[in-house]
Amino acid sequence: MHCFNALWTTLIVGTAMVLVQPAHALTGAEVNKIAKASTILVKGQNPGSGVLVGRKDDTYFVLTAEHVVATPDEYHIVTPDGAEHALNYQSVQKLPNVDLALVSFTSKQAYQLAKIGNSDQLTEGDKVFIAGWPASGVTLPHIYQFTSGEISGLPPQSIGKGYKMVYTNVTRSGMSGGPVFNDAGKVVGIHGLAEGREVVLPGYQGDPEVMKAGFNLGIPINTFVRLAKNLQAKPQVTPQPVPQPIQESTAVAQVIDAPALPSLPPGSKITFDRPPQLVDTSTTNRDAQSLNATYFFTIDIPHTAAQPLEKVEFILKQGVQYPRFKATSVKAFEGTKRDKGNDLPINIVVSDPSIRTLTVTFGEPIPPGRTITMAVRPVRNPSVGTYMFEVRGTPAGSTAESQYLGIGRLDFSRSSLGK
């Protein structure tokens, strides 16, 4: 067993690199050649993808999504040559507060490593490519796939677990953890939020087929690079035979080809002085399983809040069935249900059944001293019972923290017509 407590500091801080923009963008085929040589399959009960980002002697490092390796299980890394390498779960390094993990395996074979780009340079409209190994379906076998799209949104705040990139690429289950490449062939993000979730950017004027497919989200690669500077790695257990051990003096140039990034100022956490308050919750239809209902949540933002409201989360805490919300139909307006004012722009909506949460980010933060109402439509009401939604709000700012706004209660009963 070899300990490398300061591994990530030495990996990232030990070098300074200069980003040189190519004279011209690579073609999709050229980026695919790079992606295909460095994208791997994480083989397990729920397969995922990953990307080769570093090597020290016979130890390779793979960056993937944390939820791909969330639970102790028997995993194998399938490299581009088809070889399978056992993954020792004790070597899995889960990054704090983001959906990222670094895993390692040993091999004497030479594999191509992906180069890391600078995700801070991305802007809406930039071309991006995603590589991965989607799960097999009825008509498609389990094969490597490479899709193209564009950056469609860059929320100023994480939607949760580090997700701050929105793109139009078509993805499928099993591509989580796969790399997002720019047109220079460098990794600018890790894909992960799409399967089973509905992601909508109201007002985005794109291809109708893309709009039908929705949007996908990724974590900017700079999140990994910056977190890795201070990440204290736990001891790694390497399987026999034991390769040359990783020392604390390992230089980043030997392991990860990453740009030097300026450190972000630590700053204090941004919170409301006095949090907004959920003052009313109602529905237009209380019949279980009924169609065409709308839920209204009215929130008062006091003058003493001191910070504008940028994001609201509705987390189902009690209830048998998470309603399948129509993300495209979420609305927000000033005032109350009975005294409706101007509509409020919405930047992005994410409905995630896996965590029973609907997240709404406003196009412009709502200043203190306002009362707003959010109208949310499910495809149909859930089954009979009492449903309790915890409502949380987050102020604007990169270091903002969400705060409790209240509990919204909705009761659904069997329709009198069905009795």
General description of the model:
This protein is mainly beta and 419 residues long. It has 2 domains: 249 residues, Thrombin, subunit H (Beta Barrel), CATH 2.40.10.120; 142 residues, Immunoglobulin-like (Sandwich), CATH 2.60.40. Helices cover 9% and strands 36% of the residues. The chain is built from 5 helices and 24 strands. The strands form 4 sheets. Strands 5-4-1-2-3-7-6 form a 7-stranded antiparallel β-sheet. Strands 8-9-10-14-12-11 form a 6-stranded antiparallel beta barrel. A hairpin with a 2-residue loop joins strand 2 and strand 3. The radius of gyration is 23 Å and the shape is elongated. The termini are far apart. The N terminus is likely disordered.
Provide the gyration radius in Å. Answer: 23 Å
When the domains are counted, the total is 2
Side-by-side strand order of the widest sheet: 5-4-1-2-3-7-6
The computed structural class is mainly beta
From the structure above, extract its key features.
single chain; 419 residues; mainly beta; Thrombin, subunit H; Immunoglobulin-like; seven-stranded antiparallel beta sheet; 5 helices; 24 strands; elongated
